[in-house]
Design a protein that fits this description.
The complex is a heterodimer of chains A (418) and B (166). Chain A is an alpha/beta fold and 418 residues long. Chain A is 42% helix and 13% strand. With 166 residues, chain B is of the alpha+beta class. A four-stranded mixed beta sheet of chain B has the order 2-1-3-4, covered by helices on one side. In chain B, strand 3 and strand 4 form a beta hairpin. The chains are: A alpha/beta (418), B alpha+beta (166). Chains A and B meet through strand 3, strand 5, strand 9 and helix 15 of A and helix 3, helix 5, helix 6 and strand 4 of B.
């Protein structure tokens, strides 16, 4: 196992407590930032590290920060802790077991963005976790890492926790901001992007939990050190959430570029049934589904290579399915999810997810029809590139790639429908 | 009567957001409203609306949009089983059905004594510990992971006998 930078609590007992965290470089990154660097220097350092957003899009973090509208204040930072992608459970482990590294990351990001107030938007299901984070924040305040004139500088920062209430769409950053403003969690038309008009119409940085948890060590140990992990274009380590038909599901922190085979077999122990891997979804339910061929298994898990293999790394939530699985059923499950989670704002997604689910259910019940697959394709084509946000697009990719790449599972028996 | 019953809690919630952004407090206020009876009554919606300057229908639309708010009474304990794809690959659908059969209900229904509602929900970010469910009560949500029908039934028996938050 490579060195862990994020799931360090597995190697360092007591890291989840403030004294234990401080004993292992805790808050040295924040101290260095606020006491010796300007916000612009912090942004440059994060740019130099090559850190890319871990929420799914993989956009360079420092570049995202540099888009903040100059001279407009107040600014806000929002940590996206709305982890809801089926197959993803990494942010939860980070926040449960290494909370201070995450919260220090929020503070560093806030300093770089020149924000004096940051929110952690936690999905409502993380009720217990959110309450523990509030306690962690109170401890940080007592220790001088938060509040007015923190660490004796002239920088003020407060971090507060906001609890969502069950809506996958709130992981989309503009829907998250709407929700934080007390509205339905429905995405905004972009531009303007949150860096220009975000929370309460002010410049805002929204970053994923795992992204933020990378910051303390980047500050402490430097960009060159960080680039020693991963690949040139995808530096650093990544937490892969491994689930499905594997013997040892769980979170595995590995360098970006580790092949699927290593994750699934070396760490995950292969399929629990011993059957061959039939299909892999590398980005949770939102994945283009990959067949379990040798070529795919040998693909390095970095943003570029997985894209070249015909999918996307996304949040690196690797769902493994063995040969016992029927792709028709898989598509029914993903379509049920997206139909339930569509926010209803734009018509292609609201109607499309509904009809896609109905077409798949009909296909499941009625394998005779040549027309059902064509109908499904036509609904999918009616959505692709036409939805307001990525959710609609996500709902289509497993369906289209499932049908195309696993044709045997969708072969009609030749009779036409009545 | 939230204002009379929880004045300090309401002040604490409002203080989380900038003074000119009271609307942001609607979500925590709805959790507070739900604390009484496990669902948000019409009266509570009106009261929450009044606290932050919204119309009751606006608050009602939020209750409808977010799955963790309820506008109808359910069981004292809502057992919300994740049956999404990764959990289903580990037997979550069969788990939910077996649990319901043992309780004499169908998925989505409440037991005759009004104590337990079993619901299927979307991903809970616990895919590696399926089958799992969250237990939603009037005052919180708690995870129960790596479950069997037996362990779930034992928990239910315990809750029915001794109460508590699970």
């Amino acid at each position: 196992m490579a060195e862990r930078l994020l799931l360090r609590h597995r190697d360092l007992p007591g890291l989840g407590e403030l004294p234990g965290y401080q004993a292992h470089e805790g808050f040295e990154g924040l101290r260095k930032a606020v006491m010796t660097m300007t916000p612009a220097q912090v942004i440059d350092l994060v740019k130099a590290s090559g850190l890319r957003g871990r929420g799914g899009a993989g956009f360079p973090t420092g570049v995202k920060w540099s888009f903040l509208s100059p001279g407009v204040f107040p600014r806000y930072v929002v940590a996206n802790a709305d982890e809801s992608e089926p197959g993803t459970f990494k942010d939860r482990e980070l926040m449960e077991h290494n909370p201070f590294q995450f919260l220090e990351g929020v503070a560093i990001c806030a300093y770089a963005a020149q924000a004096n107030l940051a929110y952690v938007y936690c999905r409502g299901e993380f009720w217990d976790l959110a309450h523990r984070l509030e306690e962690n924040l109170a401890e940080m305040g007592r220790a001088g890492f938060l509040g007015a004139r923190l660490l004796g500088t002239d920088y003020d920062l407060d971090i507060r926790v906001h609890l969502g209430a069950g809506a996958y769409i709130c992981g989309e950053e503009t829907a998250l901001l709407e929700s934080l403003e007390g509205r339905l969690g429905q995405p905004r038309l972009r531009p303007p992007f949150p860096a220009a008009k975000g929370l309460y119409g002010k410049p805002t940085v929204v970053n994923n939990v795992e992204t933020l948890a990378n910051l303390p060590l980047i500050l402490t140990r430097g960009a060159e050190w960080y680039r020693g992990f991963g690949t040139e274009k995808s530096p650093g380590t990544k937490i892969f959430s491994l689930s499905g038909h594997v013997a040892r599901p769980g979170n595995y922190e590995l360098p970006l570029g580790t092949p699927f085979r290593e994750l699934i077999f070396t760490y995950g122990g292969g399929t629990s049934s011993g059957l061959k891997v039939k299909a892999i979804m590398p980005a949770g339910a939102s994945s283009s589904i990959l067949p379990g061929t040798d070529e795919v298994l040998d693909t390095p898990m970095d943003y570029e290579s997985v894209a070249a293999a015909g999918s996307a790394l996304g949040s690196a939530s690797v769902i493994v399915m063995d040969e016992s699985v029927d792709l028709g059923w898989v598509l029914k499950k993903t379509s049920e999810f997206f139909n339930h989670e569509s926010c209803g704002k734009c018509t292609p997604c609201r109607e499309g997810t509904y009809w896609m689910l109905h077409a798949i259910e009909r296909l499941e019940h009625n394998r005779r029809s040549v027309g059902d697959v064509a109908l499904l394709r036509s609904v999918a084509a009616g959505m692709q590139g036409k939805c307001l946000c990525a959710l609609g697009e996500f709902s289509v990719v497993p369906v289209v790639t499932g049908i195309d790449r696993f044709q045997a599972d969708f072969r009609p028996d030749g009779r036409d429908e009545p | 009567m939230l204002r009379e019953k929880y004045p300090q809690e309401i002040e604490r919630i409002l203080a989380i957001y900038p003074p000119d952004q009271r609307r942001s407090a609607v979500m925590p206020l709805l959790y507070l409203a739900q604390r009484e009876s496990g669902y948000v009554t019409r009266q509570a919606m009106e009261e929450v609306a009044g606290l932050i300057g919204l119309e009751p229908t606006q608050v009602g639309s939020l209750v409808g949009f977010y799955t963790l708010y309820h506008d109808e009474p359910g069981g004292t304990y809502r057992i919300q089983v994740c049956t999404d794809l990764p959990c289903a690959l580990r037997g979550a659908e069969a788990f939910a059905e077996d649990l319901c059969r043992n309780l004499g209900i169908r998925l989505g229904e409440t037991t005759a004594d009004g104590s337990v509602t079993v619901e299927a929900v979307m991903c809970l970010a616990g895919c590696d510990r399926a089958p799992l469910f969250q237990l939603q009560t009037a005052d919180g949500i708690h995870y129960h992971e790596n479950q069997t029908v037996q362990s779930a039934l034992e928990l239910i028996e315990h809750l029915r006998r001794d109460g508590g938050r699970g």
